[in-house]
Amino acid sequence: QQEGETITGIFIAWGASAAVIVALAVALSYVPKNPDPPLGILIDNRGRYSLTHLQLVLWTIIILSLVSGVFWGRLVEGVAEPLSFKIPSEVLGLLGISAGSAVTATAIKASKNKLRAGAVAASNGEADLPRFSQMFLLEEGEYADKVIDVTKFQNFVITLILMAAYIGLAIAAIEQAGNARGMGSLPGFSGTFLVLVGISQAAYVAGKLPNQTGTPEGLTLAMKPAVSGAA
User: What does the DSSP 8-state code read for residue 83?
Assistant: First the structure.
């Protein structure tokens, strides 16, 4: 019975931690004058929904809430060093790849914001309202918001698969541990899949490099106040 109780405690702490992070993300969405709270945290400074933002937010929720859940479960059970559990290198590598991809994508978008503002599609709270579909559409040129960017689609699908798989692995690992003391490590995953993630992220970033010709039909960044950088 005690083992079942401690396992349940980890799940409760994991869920509660995830809820706190989600609540914080929603609260932060109302700090700036975003056009579309409570999902404003997913909107970049082009005023558009960003796949990069979505990935970082979701991984933050999943990984950090799991770390918090295991910590509180071990603390409540009386483990001497509740933070002494291991985070596998694959998980750290995944976070590193995601962060590196985000930084690179930010740099590319910032450069295009400055040099090609008239060709970059934008949104605001009055016209060309931000839409969730923008995460999958071209962002510049005459086909902006008209054509699916296949590198974004592939990246999104692989991200969802890995997230769902990792949540499943975490649930199985917690149940297999039997109690919070037995959770000496977060679950890892295949290095081959990590390579797949790296290839997908590289393709996603590379897809932002070519300059698309033409001018978007809707609002462009040149029509908005000047901004520095993008996410």
Answer: T
- The answer to whether 201 touches 101, Cβ cutoff 8 Å, is yes
Give the pLDDT confidence of 99-127 residue by residue, as tens digits.
Answer: 899 899 989 999 999 999 999 999 876 66
Structure tokens at 153: 């689609």
Q: Do 227 and 45 contact (CB within 8 A), yes or no? A: yes
Cα–Cα distance for residue pair 85/74, rounded to 1 Å: 9
pLDDT in tens, 49-90: 999 999 989 999 999 999 999 999 889 888 889 999 999 999
- CA gap 227, 218 in Å, rounded: 18
pTM (predicted TM-score): 0.85
Report CA-CA distances (Å) from 167 to 62, 74, 78, 155. Answer: 8, 19, 25, 18
Task: Give the helix ranges, DSSP H, for the chain.
Answer: 2-29, 51-59, 65-77, 89-115, 150-177, 191-206
Structure tokens at 207: 């897809």
